[in-house]
Amino acid sequence: MPKLGMQPIRRRQLIQATLEAIDELGLADATIARIAKRAGVSTGIISHYFNGKDGLLEATMRQVLADLGKAVQERRSALGDAPAKAHLHAIIDGNFDRSQTSRSVMKTWLAFWASSMHHAPLQRLQRVNDRRLYSNLSSQFRRVLPKRQARDAARGLAAMIDGLWLRGALAPEGLNVDRARQLAYDYVREQLEGGTQRHQPRASDYA
Amino acid sequence: MPKLGMQPIRRRQLIQATLEAIDELGLADATIARIAKRAGVSTGIISHYFNGKDGLLEATMRQVLADLGKAVQERRSALGDAPAKAHLHAIIDGNFDRSQTSRSVMKTWLAFWASSMHHAPLQRLQRVNDRRLYSNLSSQFRRVLPKRQARDAARGLAAMIDGLWLRGALAPEGLNVDRARQLAYDYVREQLEGGTQRHQPRASDYA
DNA sequence: TTTTATTGATTGACCGTTCAATAAAAAATA
DNA sequence: TATTTTTTATTGAACGGTCAATCAATAAAA
Lengths: 207, 207
Fold this sequence. Notes:
Two copies of one chain form a homodimer.
Chain A: H1 6-25, H2 32-39, H3 44-50, H4 53-77, H5 84-95, H6 98-101, H7 103-116, H8 120-142, H9 147-170, H10 177-193
The structure holds a DNA duplex.
């Protein structure tokens, strides 16, 4: 029953099937045969719509990345010029959105992280995401803190978010979202309030 | 020139070659043929000394894990009953030891993390390491903080360490060890000093 | 009739494992 | 000491299996 306009439908189906396959089998065992079977199509379709397996994997990572960006942006757009703290909490909440904390998505992220170290296209995608998070955090901290402190706070919070996330992905009991958010909130509060006794490195420390 | 006692020599060689291969090619392309070639032996040797590829990978992860444990323990053993802060700094320093922050080891860690999600033996190893870090941090914070705060501080610092580490591994410019250590130190200080205004969740928050 | 969608068998490459063969040291024997 | 025998170490070709990609064939709109 080939009609016109199958492309977006098939692409969605196959990306979803890829996420499921990586969740259940891992990236190494997520073969195009298994992905195609899960999507209910033949293997040839993958090459037809994605130019091979690499294209499918890249599109899948793009999808997860877009979902993350949307989860953050939706929460922030309602805030207007609310205080920095509100924006920082919104960024945290977005990063721990349901769409990003499901078992399958966390596993996929981890797989893509590892894979991106040896695959330039994935590395670029991953880098864009990294810098966006840092840049968002940094500009919010900058509204309240001097430049150097804002930078360190952003680096620290980014590490905290990724670390909570990583440990949640690895832990058999999964990620406790509420607890993770609270720890990140605590870090934000500590950064925003007590700024005076902080370590003040010289510029050469950052060579 | 086959003599006796080749086993420990070959095992060391092959584990080293595995680290190098994962660094250069990634886990997916680190085939036994390539690993064997890099070690200057034939492929058969791997099965002979490691019972196949899985055994070699497990042994490699064990090696990296043992190095990490040693890096931490060496720093702590000199401290005796020094203040909690000193022990926490030693744990941080151990986690950012030179043996753990080389490009090849960080890549290998990341690969093993991803792989451990679908490979029970690796998952067990990874879990032991995770719990050891948390347990070490927790017991030191416990010397100074009430139970719940100590637990949260340990969870937060563990996430911070892993997060700094992860972001260092992913960043093209690599990990800035001094900066990472300083951010972790700052977190320790904030946890140890300002304990009164902290968020106090009810037990149900931790369900 | 042309275009779009889809199949799935085929192909060629590569993977990990196995194992018979070989070599050299160590141990046993004369 | 000189010799066989046993043990340990090692090789690499062969094997069975799996993978991603290809492409001729087919089917149903347009």
